[in-house]
Amino acid sequence: MSMNARTPLQIAVNRYEQRNGCPFVPTRKLFYDRVGINQKRFGMLLRGELPMYGFEAKSLAQFFGVEVTELLNDEKPVRKSKSPITTV
Fold first, then answer.
1. Is 83 contained in some domain?
2. 80 or 67, which is more confident?
3. Looking at residue 73, what DSSP letter applies?
4. Which domain holds residue 51?
5. Residues 6+ apart with CB under 8 A from 41
6. Whole-structure pTM over 0.85, yes or no?
7. Is residue 40 situated within a structural domain?
8. Is 37 domain-assigned?
9. Residue 50: CB partners within 8 Å, gap ≥ 6?
């Protein structure tokens, strides 16, 4: 992934990469089907754009070998607005 770890999921992915000694490259058969999350949603969860559901946290925690609480720690979605709106 080679990104600065900011979200709990990014931290889990970075630790997974360190343990395995190679970059994490998710594939449909070995990752997405196994954890039950599609590529788009995983990317949004990884960037912290959406809150993680309990079943997702459980599946991801099992795959990456971390506790569910580590993934749900500081779970605040960081949605980016597409248009600047100022309120008066």
1. no
2. 67
3. T
4. 27-71
5. 50, 56
6. no
7. yes
8. yes
9. 41, 44, 77, 79
Q: Which helix (H) or strand (E) holds 16?
A: helix 8-20
Token pair belonging to 18:
């360190």
| Residue that has been written with the tokens 């889990």 in this structure | 12
> Would you say residue 41 lies in a domain?
yes
d(CA 7, CA 70): 10
- Kindly state the tokens that stand for 81: 């607005």
Q: What is the mean pLDDT of residues 1-13?
A: 77
The answer to whether the CB of 45 falls within 8 A of the CB of 56 is yes
φ, ψ (nearest 5 deg) of residue 87 = -105, 145
Residue type, position 51, single letter: P
Tens digits of residue pLDDT in 37-51: 999 999 999 999 999
Number of domains in the chain: 1
Distance CA 49, CA 66 (A): 21
Give Cβ neighbours of residue 76 (< 8 Å, ≥ 6 apart): 48, 51
